[in-house]
Amino acid sequence: MKVLVPVKRVVDYNVKVRVKADETDVDLANVKMSMNPFDEIAVEEAVRLKEKGIVSEVVAVSCGPAACQDTLRSAMAMGADRGILVESDGELQPLAVAKLLKAVCEKEGPSLLICGKQAIDDDSNQTGQMLAALMDWPQATFASKVELAADKVTVTREIDGGLETLAMALPAVVTTDLRLNEPRYATLPNIMKAKKKPLDTIAADTLGVDIAPRLKTIKVSEPPKRAGGVKVADVADLLNKLRNEAKVI
Amino acid sequence: MAVLVLAEHDNKSLKAATLNTIAAAIKLSGDVDVLVAGEGCAEVAARVAALQGVKRVLVVDNAAYGDQAAEPLAKLVVSLAANYSHLLGPSSSYGKNTMPRVAALLDVAQISDIVGVVSEDTFVRPIYAGNALATVVSSDAKKVITVRSTAFDPVADGASAAVENAAAADAAKKSDLVGRELTKSERPELGAAKVVVSGGRGLGSGESFKSIMEPLADKLGAAIGASRAAVDAGFVSNDCQVGQTGKIVAPQLYIAVGMSGAIQHLAGMKDSKVIVAINKDPDAPIFQVADYGLVADLFEAVPQLTASL
Ligand SMILES: Cc1cc2nc3c(=O)[nH]c(=O)nc-3n(C[C@H](O)[C@H](O)[C@H](O)COP(=O)(O)OP(=O)(O)OC[C@H]3O[C@@H](n4cnc5c(N)ncnc54)[C@H](O)[C@@H]3O)c2cc1C
Ligand SMILES: Nc1ncnc2c1ncn2[C@@H]1O[C@H](COP(=O)(O)O)[C@@H](O)[C@H]1O
């Protein structure tokens, strides 16, 4: 059984992103880029399923510029068998990525696609659900447990009120939540091995899908700053301020 | 043109985020319809009909929608889309699950988690864990939108809209619901609570989380929140997580106890009206957003606070 794992190259989650002075965008010059944390969880899950012998091949896919090769190598260093770069230099929005992934799914015929629930740059939380709709596949978003069998997958999902478990026929889309697993660190030998794993590049414009952005960003601004507060001396002082100054209790 | 809001409910009661979503819809059009799709959901429809600003309630009562699965729901919304310029859902796990499917089937972008309506086609939404606000213009004929509930004041009761039945669409299920484990709590809903008391890794264990945070929450009639570290360590259930990838809250009062204030956590609570932080480390970043910071050992300060309330 083949599993496809889309991996996005995003700003590292430790970076505190700043808005450019001209308010056109955030400043990403010279900041560290990494694999989207939820996608690391997706790769980890796929690799564990392979280690359990249920899955035979894990294919990582990244859509974006040539630099996404690094992200694919990271996925391969964690255990993905090969990588596919769908190369495009323009801005790719979730609908476009879903269409590109659909084209890749039609070529590769995976039984399962595991992606992140959310990219930590655009915070869209759309791509997996969109792809599932375009393929007319079932979906289980925000997964905290995945049990895969030959013909079905049972997923526990984190929903607002607690947990929900769904059983779905394959092929299906699963999106990962943080508690699904703890991704491994790639070891040096595995990083070296990953350099020799196959990495194919497909030009996005050869896939025959409309990837034009539908949303145009006209301004990127700093959110309102909170005015710096005060330190209180003790619990009595705190209570006094909450009662008489802030009047919230 | 008219706007359609997808109501979130569990067949018995309406979820609070729907009221905020309707409030955002009203900013777009005077003609707001609300879709209540479920099984045995008449009570919910009646509740929606009483909300101000709702013109029509469309009810689809059918077993296919009973467990709110995304696949049939999205097809239902798409079947109704022709009459609407905008389709809105709450940015809750329910809305996030369903609305992107609607958007993809209509071949339009989704505008996720909006916090502001500038015009019919222009919206403001947070990106990069709320470190920036993007103003985006949609070129699509129809707009599919999810709404951050904390950014719009809920609509009030006091009206009576028409309730009409609508037809089910292709209702084929694609998944089977095996079961749900819902957290039962007498406390207010985290996303809509006036006061939230929230605990972090500093609580040390599930037992101390319970013995320190619950009495405080009881006294204040507060909802309980947590950092990811506290949830990961198993101190409380996952649905308590506040942050970029958890719940977004903006109560009147947010009391952060034993948490450092990581950007991912701040993303979920920094729009609270008043923030209190209790932490023994004077340099903890949480103090940079706190209106009132108390540098103290939580195991002493919190019980003392609870006792004096
Ligand atoms: C992709 C991604 C998404 C994330 N999403 C979220 C999210 O949605 N929400 C979230 O919260 N986190 C999220 N995180 C995790 C986040 O980065 C932090 O790791 C987490 O918020 C830290 O939790 P904490 O503040 O409880 O723990 P810590 O950072 O360990 O802080 C514990 C604090 O407790 C204090 N303390 C200890 N003992 C005491 C005592 N006795 N009295 C008083 N104070 C004490 C310490 O001084 C310290 O400041 C995410 C991370 C990633 C990578
Ligand atoms: N450009 C991309 N290349 C590969 N995967 C992507 C890309 N964009 C989004 N994804 C996948 O879709 C998930 C959700 O992204 P988003 O809908 O943008 O929040 C991510 O966690 C990735 O798994």
Structural descriptors:
heterodimer; A: 249 residues; Rossmann fold; 9-stranded mixed sheet; B: 309 residues; alpha/beta; 7-stranded parallel sheet; 28% strand; binds flavin-adenine dinucleotide; binds adenosine monophosphate
Describe the structure.
The complex is a heterodimer of chains A (249) and B (309). With 249 residues, chain A is of the alpha/beta class. Chain A has a single domain, classed as 3-Layer(aba) Sandwich (Rossmann fold), CATH 3.40.50.620. Chain A has helices spanning 37-51, 68-78, 94-108, 127-135, 188-196, 235-245; strands at 2-6, 9-11, 33-35, 57-64, 82-87, 112-116, 139-148, 152-159, 162-169, 172-176, 199-203, 215-221, 230-231. A nine-stranded mixed sheet of chain A has the order 9-8-7-10-6-1-4-5-11, with helices on both faces. Chain A has a two-stranded antiparallel sheet with strand order 2-3. In chain B, α5 (206-220) links the parallel β12 (195-199) and β13. The relative contact order of chain B is 0.12. Chain B folds into two domains: 2-165, HUPs (Rossmann fold), CATH 3.40.50.620; 190-308, Rossmann fold, CATH 3.40.50. The radius of gyration of chain B is 20 Å and the shape is globular. Chain B has helices spanning 17-26, 42-49, 70-80, 93-105, 206-220, 228-232, 263-266, 298-308; strands at 2-6, 32-38, 56-61, 84-90, 110-114, 116-119, 122-127, 132-138, 143-147, 162-165, 175-182, 195-199, 223-226, 253-257, 274-279, 292-295. The longest helix of chain B has 15 residues, at 206-220. The model of chain B has no long low-confidence stretch (mean pLDDT 96). Chain B has a seven-stranded parallel sheet, sandwiched between helices. Chain B has a five-stranded parallel sheet with strand order 13-12-14-15-16. A three-stranded antiparallel sheet of chain B has the order 6-7-8, with no helix packed on it. Classes of the chains: A alpha/beta (249), B alpha/beta (309). Chains A and B meet through α3, α4, β7, β8 and β9 of A and α3, α4, β5, β7 and β8 of B. β12 (215-221) of chain A pairs antiparallel with β8 (132-138) of chain B. Bound molecules: flavin-adenine dinucleotide and adenosine monophosphate (AMP). Adenosine monophosphate is lined by residues 6-8, 36, 38-39, 61-64, 92, 94, 97, 115-116, 118-119, 122, 124-128 of chain A.
